[in-house]
Amino acid sequence: MRGSRKPKIRLGYSPPTSFNLTSPHCTTTRHTRPFSTSPSPLQASPVAKQTQGQSNSDGFIEKNVVSSTELPPWDWQRMISSRQRRAAIRESSASLIPDTQKLISSTVEYFTNLGSTQHRKNTYQPHHGLSRPPPPEHLTLSALVASGAHIGHFKSLMFPTFIPYAYGTRAGVTIIDLEQTLPMLRRAANVVRAIAQNNGMILFVGTSPALRPIVAKAAERLGSENGFHVGERWLPGTLTNRIGLFGSEAVKTKKLKPDCVIFLNPLNNLHAIRECAIEHIPTIGITDSNADPRIVMYSIPANDESVRTAELVAGVLSLAGQQASCSPSLVQDISSLLFFFV
Length: 342
What we know:
By secondary structure, the chain is α/β, with parallel strands linked by helices. 37% of the residues lie in helices and 10% in strands. The protein has helices at 73-114, 128-131, 141-146, 178-197, 212-222, 242-246, 248-253, 270-278, 307-326, 334-337; strands spanning 151-154, 166-170, 173-176, 202-205, 227-230, 260-263, 283-287, 298-301. The termini are far apart.
């Protein structure tokens, strides 16, 4: 209305939270329904009483208000029937559980004979190369592929004498022929087995931080008498100057010349390979596409930068030596294996 003003709220003034509807200044009455109209089944209440719309003294019509808190009888029947229905479902499902288990077991037994017998325990896993390597006779091409042994260097870095061991190139990268790697790895395993059979000393060399635990585990598998490893820098003169490094007494009392040296990174230990050649010690090494396979006596063409490949090769060779030390009945002749060396 014109002339009416809105009330101003002063600072520090809070409006009242309730109004006196019976005050003569209030011209209307407000009727509200209770917030909770759902009764409790434990409460007993009279029959529902409804108030018809009546006009009060001010001329306003009040709304109907339901003051009953009693549930109709059909709600109780519905609740009982639903409970009975759920109980029947539970009983039927409990009776079907044994039949379902029998059906599942029979289905598994039926399809087990038709499917593969491989599972996680007898299938190669990437982390099994160091802790649980496969024996040489069970080594497969899939295990070599899984370890990344087929990946070489760029085609422009391929050494000319490595061409017979290259399968081809892909995206400019040399792919190593694993069909030649597998028999050459088994040949090296036979050499290690023959040396361990004759109580020989086998030395594993891996002079990078990633190869140190590998050579340590491989030497541990062969035992303290036959297995040794070098994880740090190769000291020049370790083989050619034994008296100067270890002393004359140690040379006379201890065996300081290994019978076989296995190099996991031969390009970083060329001086050690030269010392082995001077002392006429057979060598085994992983040669990549950028290296000359003739630098070691028994070459294994594979990826020398892959840690998994190094774990697999060192694990297979150390396991071959462990098998020979555990079963003395195996007789191997090293001279028969020299036929493969050119």
